[in-house]
Fold Chaperone protein DnaJ.
Amino acid sequence: MVSLDHYQVLGVPNDASTREITSAYRKLALKYHPDRNKSPHANEMMLRINTAYGILSDPLKREQYDYSIRVLKVVGREDSPKSTREKKGLMRLLSFVVKTGIIVVLFLYKASKAIVRLIIDRIDNLK
């Protein structure tokens, strides 16, 4: 079975530091980069490694990922048809919340950059 756990992909514990995550990423990238590894699975493995690193090296994305893992563990405790429907609904809700959160952060980042540019332009005009 294919591991979708980003910590397992990089071979680091859930409480790994950013330095440990980066070190693991670099070692795996050297091992699985398609230019160095001619295995037919190298591209797929490199994609998993890049995805895992992209999430775990970004504090906001990592926090959202860790939260979603905790939710999945709680939701996965029952197997009744009702809980299966609830799981699907909660997963859709979780996906929406994470995507919305990312969009809001990106919007605020872009808006703050625009405001900073506007302030700098005004300061330059005062000279």
